[in-house]
Amino acid sequence: MNSRHHASDEMVGLAEVAVPLGIHKTFTYRVPGKLCEQCRPGCRVLAPFGKRHLIGLVVETRRGPNEPGLKELSSILDATPVLNEKLVRLGRWMSWYYLAPPGEVFRVMLPPGLLAKKASPRGGGSAFWPAKTRLAVVSSDLDREDSLTPLQS
């Protein structure tokens, strides 16, 4: 039996993140241990992307191996998800059905500016909320069972 411990054998929190770019896939990020409880589908996150940071939307969380090369999320921007699970499922379905980049689908599902193409990890929490929408965040009534068609759910 091999007693050596490999970093990739360790199970860590992972998040699939949609970024607001014309890319037809989501990206997997490692979730730091201290942020695992806060990281839920529908929450916005600050994610390193190349030489910059983007505000993305978590579409799925899971436990998985700590693969080499996985980047770590910088921060979770929302205490509660900005999209509920049904809306996240709807957005993923729309991306699949209309062959649209998932990040762009979620960008148009939110008020302008909530998924920004440019962000700085040094900004405060309120810096990630556009000034005009801070006072006008609305919730949706999609908890009703008849809100989505069978094909969309």
Summarize this structure briefly.
This protein is α+β, with helices and mostly antiparallel strands and 153 residues long.
Could you walk me through the main structural features you see in this protein, from its secondary elements to its overall organization?
With 153 residues, the protein is of the alpha+beta class. It is globular and about 40 Å long. α1 (85-97) packs across α2. Helices cover 14% and strands 23% of the residues. The protein has two helices and five strands, in the order βββββαα. The model is unreliable at 1-5 and 130-138 (pLDDT under 50). Strands 2-1-4-3-5 form a five-stranded antiparallel beta sheet.
Q: Summarize model confidence as the mean pLDDT.
A: 82
Helix content bin: 10-25%
**What are the secondary-structure elements, in order, as H or E?**
EEEEEHH
> What composes the largest sheet?
5 strands, antiparallel
Rg for CA atoms: 16 Å
Strand content: 15-25%
The CA-CA distance between the termini, in Å, is: 46 Å
Strand order of the largest sheet: 2-1-4-3-5
Global geometry: globular
Q: What would you call the structural class? A: alpha+beta
Number of helices: 2
Q: How many β-strand runs?
A: 5
Uncertain stretches: 1-5, 130-138
